[in-house]
Design goal:
The chain is α/β, with parallel strands linked by helices. The chain is built from 8 helices and 10 strands.
């Protein structure tokens, strides 16, 4: 049995949340720079350069990349042989969220009652947690600060199996076109297909955590992801929705077996500031 102190979890979650809100990941900056070569719109190139300059200022002056510092979403894998000493796992993570947003001077955006009072929790908790129990003694936390603008533009559709790949691609493009400038493109797009209504949505969110150089192990699905990306970039939405070819930097697609009568498809959008990090204990 491996023992992990809850305080260590809290400390590292707090540290990681501050880090990802201040420093745009190098692969994202590289992808933005590479997109300048394909962007035909002079305004689009200017906007991409402004995004890169914004990332530089945030990194050098230790200020948030964006005023919306996001809600915290975490995918947790905990081994059956792990015992948390002190607070429970969920409490340890939420204490890390509260501390990170307080010490990092990050905006608190979570409201406790979503329907009536809409009162701010004051510390950006609770986090949205997805926990998986696995064999062994590992504990990993994949954590993200997800902005409301891009999250609000995400959609789920219960499609018919007959809609097939063409229907899925059309749906993704429709979501992007309807979203326009609201999710602050260039986008990272997570697509979840299969399972059930809720499983597809979780898959789409999980797809956003994959690295920009991720290649699906099944070549047919990887090619399909690339085809979707190409079609999205033909929509003309462009950087910040002001026109151009760089509407999305990456499309990641995850699937799960589903009922013979079903084809659930979820599309989760993320702005170019895909703020997520990996914590391994």
């Amino acid at each position: 049995m491996r023992e992990i102190k809850s305080q260590e979890i809290t400390d590292r979650v707090a540290q990681k949340l501050i880090e990802i809100n201040l420093k745009l990941a190098t692969p994202l900056c590289n992808s933005l720079e590479e997109s300048l070569n394909m962007e035909e719109s002079s305004l689009g190139r200017e906007l991409i350069n402004q995004l890169l300059e914004n990332a530089r200022i945030a990194r050098e002056q230790s200020i948030p990349i964006c005023q919306d510092t996001g809600m915290v979403v975490a995918f947790v894998r905990i081994g059956e042989g792990v015992r948390i000493i002190g607070n429970g796992l969920e409490e340890a993570i939420n204490q890390g969220v509260a501390r990170g947003y307080r010490e990092g001077n990050l905006r608190q955006s979570m409201v406790l009652d979503p329907i009536f009072e809409r009162k701010n929790s004051g510390d950006n908790t609770p986090a949205i947690l997805h926990t998986e129990v696995v064999p062994g003694e590992e504990l990993t936390v994949e954590i993200a600060a997800k902005g409301g603008g891009s999250e609000n533009m995400s959609q789920l559709k219960m499609m018919k199996p007959a809609d097939g790949p063409e229907g899925i691609m059309d749906f993704v493009c429709e979501v992007v076109e309807e979203a326009g400038p609201n999710p602050c493109p260039p986008l990272i797009i997570g697509v979840g297909v299969g399972g059930s209504m809720e499983k597809a949505a979780v898959l789409a969110k999980k797809a956003l955590f994959l690295p920009l150089d991720y290649e699906h192990p099944h070549s047919r699905l990887e090619a399909f992801s690339q085809d979707i990306l190409a079609q999205v970039n033909k929509t003309g939405v462009g950087p910040l929705g002001l026109g151009g070819r760089t509407t999305a930097l990456k499309v990641n697609l995850l699937t799960h077996p589903c009922h013979i009568a079903s084809l659930p498809v979820a599309v989760n959008l993320n702005c170019h500031a895909a703020r997520h990090g990996h914590i391994e204990f």
